[in-house]
Structures are given as C-alpha cells and as structure tokens.
Specification:
Among the domains are: 117 residues, Jelly Rolls (Sandwich), CATH 2.60.120; 54 residues. By secondary structure, it is of the alpha+beta class. The two termini are 41 Å apart. α2 packs across α5, α3 runs antiparallel to α5 and α6 crosses α7. It comes from Kribbella sp. HUAS MG21. One of its GO terms (molecular function) is sequence-specific DNA binding. InterPro entries: AraC_XylS_family_regulators, Homeodomain-like_sf, HTH_AraC.
Length: 313
C-alpha cells in the first residue's frame, strides 16, 4: 500500500477518517479551530503514522485489536485512560497506548506524535512461545523499562516510517516485509516488560538442537522465517535456542541465518553476469532490505565488497 496523507479542517471528516484508519471512536473539539494532518506508511501487518492535531481533541475509542505505540514529539496527551490506569504523555514519551482488547479515552492538546501499530500475534511469533502451548505474549506495562530501551525502539520506528516503508521495492517484497515486522516486534519486546520474562530457562540446550535448527534454516532460506519458527522446528523455546547457538556457535540464530543467506548472495554473484544483474537485486531476493548493512556484513564475512564479487572475471 502506498503512503497516505489526510488533511482537514472539518471535525466530522476528521472523525470519519479516524474511524476508518483506527477504530470506532467519537472525538470532540472546537469546530472553528480544527486542523488535522495525518500521514501513514504501511505494509502488511505494520503501520507508522505521523499526526499533527492542531486543536484540543477529546477521544473515546473502542479497542484497536492491535499493539499501538504512541511517541509524542510536541504538545500533551492528557487524561489518557485505559485498562484501569490513567497517565499523561509529553515530548519524548514513547508508550503502549492501550492493550489490543481494551477501549481508551483522553485528550490530545495540540500535539504532534506518531502512532505505530502491529499485529499482536507478531510478539508471540518473535518471542518463540510455541503455538502448541497456546500462550500469547502480552505487554505488562505501558511504559518502556528504561530510557535506553525507549530510544532504541524510537530509532526503529523512525527507520520504518521514514525509510523502509516508503520504499516501493521493500513494500513489494514479502520477505523484506516479514523481516521488518519481526524487527519491530523484537524491538517492542526488548523495550517493554512482557510475559516472556516469566518463561524459565528450561533444560540445557544440546547439539541436536543446533542440527535441527540449521537444517530448518537451510531448507527455508528463501522464505520469511523468524527465530520463533526456527525454535519450533528444533522443538525448543527461543531462549533455549539462543542459549544453544551462543554456547556451541558463539552466535545468535538470526546472525547465523544471515550468514547462510549471505553465502547464497555470494554464490549468485559469482555465477552472475554483471551486465544482467545488480547487487541490489540479488540481495533483495535473499531478504536484505538495507543495502548498506548488507554490504558491511558481506565485507566483514568475505573481505570484499559484493560489487567486487560481481565484477570478477
């Protein structure tokens, strides 16, 4: 879906748009001062919106059905209430706006802020809670556990909204979009207290775990898989999988998966005719949506730039 822009000075049209874009809600404000501007970058199961509300707007909304993150740039969001708590957000705050299944209400006081939404199922997939256990992951607090964690999540959101989701090549690649969705979900879990922190370490990982995981990776290199899928294929939790890889390979599962895909990129570049292909096209086929990072990882692994590999006689 292409980036979208909505602008209005009409309260009714603004409410109508918010109902379409988010969930059924009622808003209020002085009709003579209404000024709304909303831009949206979206693809698959994630979206990043930038909102400018140039008036005091009250809102009373139904559940969103999604994880909803709000980062305030200017102004204040006051008397925000949901799920038994009430809070006020100002510049620099990045919060989980409401649980997916809970209504919320409050007042936007001439603010600019972002709204980032993702499917709650992504948290469970990335966290690696086995689908057999039927235990969805939930956030336990609406504020991040540290300022550093909040800053890292903010950088991820900025990268998605300002760059990745604006790129038509990225939006047309299911593998890239899956990677971005996993990046966002991982950043959310790293930033907020959540139910995965209750999961015990479990039994010590064994080498058979590595063999199963690597076999699964190698047979799914061209598919959108994440650490949760790998853990389930190896019949362990994500935590046990990560422990096994760190202990036996000195790596993480996703770092190892990246090396396997880089090997495929190298093999394809060595076999390709420079007149008929490009590094960017080959990298995209193997899920690398950020050319600069791919190039740096490739050079660290192989000691040369991918363009040099392609240009070999």
């Amino acid at each position: 879906m292409k980036p979208m822009l909505f602008e209005s000075r009409d309260l009714g049209k603004t409410e109508e748009f918010l109902n379409r874009a988010y969930t059924k809600m009622q808003i209020g404000g002085g009709p003579s001062e209404v000024r709304t501007r909303i831009s949206r970058a979206t693809a698959a199961s994630i979206s990043v919106d930038r909102l400018e509300i140039g008036f005091e707007m009250s809102y009373d909304a139904n559940p969103l059905g999604k994880i909803c993150l709000c980062e305030v740039y200017s102004g204040t969001i006051a008397d925000h209430a949901t799920d038994g708590w009430r809070d006020e957000f100002g510049p620099g705050d990045l919060v989980s706006f409401a649980p997916p299944d809970q209504p919320f209400a409050g007042t936007v006081q001439r603010s600019t802020y972002s709204i980032t939404m993702l499917d709650p199922a992504l948290l469970t997939q990335v966290a690696g809670v086995s689908r057999k256990r039927n235990a969805p992951v939930r956030l336990r607090a609406h504020r991040p556990h540290s300022r550093d964690a909040a800053r890292q999540l903010s950088r991820t959101i900025a990268y998605l909204g300002d760059h990745a989701l604006q790129d038509p090549v990225v939006r047309s690649s299911p593998l890239m979009l899956s990677s971005l969705a996993q990046l966002l979900a991982s950043s959310v879990l790293a930033a907020f207290p959540n139910t995965t922190m209750d999961e015990p370490e479990g039994a010590a990982a064994r080498p058979v775990t590595i063999r199963r995981a690597v076999a699964y990776m190698e047979s799914h290199l061209d598919q959108a898989i994440g650490v949760a899928d790998i853990a389930e294929a190896a019949d362990v939790t994500v935590r046990a999988l990560q422990s096994a890889f760190q202990r036996h390979l000195g790596s993480t599962p996703l770092a190892y998966l990246r090396q396997l895909r880089l090997a495929e990129v190298r093999a394809e570049l060595l076999a390709a005719d420079p007149a008929d292909t490009t590094v960017v096209a080959v990298a995209a086929r193997w899920g690398f949506h950020h050319h600069g990072r791919m190039t740096a990882a490739y050079r660290e692994l192989y000691g040369e730039l991918p363009s040099a590999t392609l240009a070999r006689d």
